[in-house]
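Task card 7
Instruction: Convert sequence to structure tokens.
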Amino acid sequence: MGGRVESRGVEKSEGPPETSMTTSAPLSFSDPSPWHLVNTDWDETQSDTFVLTGDRCGTPGAAMQGMHYAVHPALCCVDCAFEFEIRLNPHSDTGVVFRARDASHFYLLHFPNCGQQSRAQHFWVALSRMDDSGYLRRMRMSLVNGVPSTRKDIWLHVRAHVEGPRVTVKVGDYGHVAFEDATYRGPGHVGVYAWRDAALRGLRVATPRQLDPIWEQGPVQRVNWTIPAPMEERVWQQPIDVRRFHDGEMVMQANLQKVITAGSDAVAFPYLMRSSDRGRSWSPPKEIDFMGDGNSWSPPRLHLTPNERLLLVTPGRDHKKVFESTDRGNTWSDAGTTNLHIGPPRDQPVQDLSPAGFLNLRDGSILAIMLSSALIEASQTNHTVWTWGSVHCQAFAARSEDDGRTWSEPVNVDASFLDADGNVVTGNMDLTEGSAFETADGRVVMLIRPVYSPWMWQTWSDDGGRSWSPCVRGPFPGYAAPNMVRTVSGAVLIAHRMPGLCVHCSRDDGRTWDEGTTIDSSVWAMGSMVEVEPDVVLYIYWDSDYSLMRSQRIRVTPSEIEPG
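Output:
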């Protein structure tokens, strides 16, 4: 197996060459000179283990929430070799920093993990680069075979070798990966990184030539986020939908939890906010009082139709009610009903709206993006989602051609086919929450969150969602991805979980994508995106700490995304 259960010490295995290199003793915070801390909150009482402190593993910090770095004050070099052990928990990340000139310029070799990835038994290694944008730009991330991901009691042995632009990594007994990037060629300091409750211990660094320190204390990581709805009381704000009218005014529907919990029975109250300055400021939250409280995980959904009818669709498996506002959410009609919940199978379970909700198409139609979980047999009730293959789900789309008044039967987005015996083979059972956009030539592209697949799933429709192609493996891993938008220039952005809050950009209608950019931690990666200026996207999302929502403006340039 690639790891060991609570073993101490460091295994000897094939890895970076050590000849003519000076190897440090295991590094710790007990070293004589104080470390350069970024976001602080490290537990400095551990002898040779780097781990964060606090109930939620460190304070949020000024820049990316809860992402903490500690840079050694004396170890400065160009090339080096690392040896250490890591322990990952779901929704955690740790790794080593190298060639760090200051808090805004360094490489990060890290081992990102999230709950979905961990229980699906995928292990990933990433090389990222921090720059003065305040973003952590991913150079490359690779799925590494032969390494376990689900056990919290396993320490994994890692050896890494940095020489010129090349980084080679060995994890455990069987995991190997190599990366290359030549952006930062000069010397810099080494250090450690952690997010949440991952741990790194026994860190040794070897270098052929140790250089004089060059660390600049002045530069700090850029802060790109704001708080759109400050509140003194302790609440959990959960932005659901942001909708923009033709004149630029925007309305946002958000849940507010007053008793904070992530349990399945969590109660939240729906609120509306509005902005007339492209999302730079928002009115105070106003409760949608006729709705009362509801479940956090089945919120009302706000949608602006092609004819600018503002609709509020309430959840429910046995029915869905629709309210309409003709004054942009100030007042609402009496409840109407919709047939949106109806679709095969007509008995339980029925389709539910995906977090992405609805997609307006250029022909005036609307797609409802849906999912339907399969029931687990009674004999399998002792299995949780952590038992690989125990949970099944399918994805669907329904179409409205009358501005959202009535809907077609939901269609499985993974095309059915006949096997050799003429039996119908229905769609993939690993499909959950879909997000979609329409290309320049009218094709609908959908990326779908998996249950167990290492990568997202992808499918296409050439007839406005009436039928779909067979699902294929998508371009990258991603979970909780309701945030997707296509800009006026044709750039497509999608934000998702893993690693951290990651944004991918495509400039050719989804044929190719960049490597991804981490813009924050946001363990939930839930929220809403809307274009507020040409190629400037407003993204409002849940934070990592069960607290206040965050907002960022993202500008698309010809080469990369930048803070807007």
